[in-house]
Write the structure tokens for this entry.
Amino acid sequence: MAQRWLASVPARDGGQRVVDTSVAHISRVYDYWLGGKDNFAADRVAGDRVIAAYPDIVRSARANRAFLARAVRYLVREAGVRQFLDIGTGIPAANNTHEVAQSAAPECCVVYVDNDPVVLSHAQALLASGPDGATAYVDADLRDPGTILAEAGGLLDFSRPVAIMLVAILQHIGNKADPFGIVGRLMGAVPAGSYLALSHPARDIQAKAMAEIAESMNELVAEKVTFRSRAEVLRFFDGLELVKPGVVPVPRWRPISDTEAASPTVLWGGLGRKG
Ligand SMILES: C[S@@+](CC[C@H](N)C(=O)[O-])C[C@H]1O[C@@H](n2cnc3c(N)ncnc32)[C@H](O)[C@@H]1O
């Protein structure tokens, strides 16, 4: 018989959050694709269903992580950003935001946000900051940007530039929950010189496979998905100056080699600057 729950982890209110292993969750499905160990049978069944529809999903997930690292390096080295609000952190993997940022500038501060109890249970690993910088973890939902901003304000100084990172998370915010309004609210809270770093699964790359993937994920994974076209993803950057090369397939965003640029992908990605 399938194990119903694994453990409980401390919650914001001082209570406990139960981890249900019988239903797939995106943090653990993504961990499976990335070759991690924090996934269960239900996550692997959902992950394998997606692999059957699009066998390159594993390379696409890795290309998304590589995009995240290149965007953070750009933000630290080229844009001079030292503060990051990384919403939809995921289970720690290679090159977490604070590791990449602090290897370029040790004083960088990162606030991680996720609503998944398994990610919360890994908060200690994410909090292992270098001595010159700092990290914090906020257990919150992207649909509640007020709480995120209030809690992130414990570490981040919102009078100085902040990079808001929404990497492969907005597909879990359906149109009824007003994803464009949420991004507008977050960007409205940060000063000029701040950035939005975003990637998003496409419905206009590998369209047939992506329609199949959406159907499987909406059947098997707790967090429902809405994939978006490039035109829809561009809307998230309204009012921001797009950093070249704009919104492109993630491996084509400032790749460091031709091999990296050629990776298969089903995600759009880009970086925008608040003027
Ligand atoms: C596909 S993973 C992406 C992880 C990481 N950003 C990356 O790109 O490598 C999506 C993450 O977003 C989190 N997530 C999904 N919906 C969320 C929500 N409404 N609020 C907060 N986190 C959410 C999931 O728990 C998961 O950890």
